[in-house]
Write a structure and sequence with these properties.
By secondary structure, this protein is an alpha+beta fold. The protein is built from eight helices and seven strands. The protein folds into two domains: about 150 residues, Roll (Pnp Oxidase, Chain A), CATH 2.30.110.10; about 35 residues, no CATH class.
Length: about 210
């Protein structure tokens, strides 16, 4: 479907709508990790990473683990394990052709976020792999990100969403299970509850 909406196509058109940022905001990105970003990473159990492939299509992937599952190597390098997933390898494939990534770290209960933009690479280095052995299992690979821009992101987005407010959490009755979605989307002839059971067992057995 072709969009019939008019589009903004230049920076000058954008700036006709949006004010210029304050100097402190414009210049806030640091070229390396400081004590605050290191501490944020140390406490964070979850982040999202964006990438893009050679065709230009963007992608974003969630990554989670125990608090501090992302390790800081030095002032500009962080590493994290690639745990079992669906084997589509969207993010990793994108990294091979376009190493630029953006990372958004969250702390449960904290409204501010940490953003890191940098260059990613994939390694099977044994020393790094051993860092992330969990329940006797190594990760499939380790991702190394060289940070180029590091900065804190303001709280407005999370405050507007009330993401951490338990009174706003969506109940199971308000959205179908993944089993039901898979059954409908792929026209499967098995009960949704059975699909959910298989998915739940897989998540338990293949979490690491």
């Amino acid at each position: 479907m072709t969009s019939h909406f008019s589009s903004i196509t230049s920076i000058s058109e954008l700036r006709a709508v949006y004010d210029e940022p304050a100097k402190a905001i414009r210049d806030k990105a640091l070229p390396m990790l400081d004590k605050y970003s290191r501490r944020f990473i140390e406490l964070s159990p979850f982040f999202c990473i964006s990438s893009h492939g050679p065709e230009g299509l963007g992608d974003v992937s969630p990554r989670g683990g125990e608090p501090g599952f992302v390790h800081v190597l030095d002032d500009t390098h962080i590493v994290f394990p690639d745990r079992p997933g669906n084997n589509r390898l969207d993010t990793l494939t994108n990294m091979l052709s376009s190493p630029g990534v953006g990372m958004l770290f969250f702390l449960p209960g904290i409204h501010e976020m940490l953003r890191i933009n940098g260059q990613a690479s994939i390694t099977l280095d044994e020393g790094l792999m051993q860092r992330f052995v969990h329940q006797g299992k190594q990760p499939r690979a380790v991702i190394v990100v060289e940070a180029k821009e590091v900065y804190m992101h303001c709280s407005k987005g999370l405050k507007r969403s009330e993401l951490w407010n338990p009174d706003k959490h969506v109940g199971k009755k308000d959205f179908p299970s993944l089993g039901q979605i898979a059954k409908d989307q792929y026209k499967l002839f098995v009960p949704a509850k059975l699909i959910d059971l298989v998915l739940d067992q897989d998540a338990k057995k293949n979490l690491y």
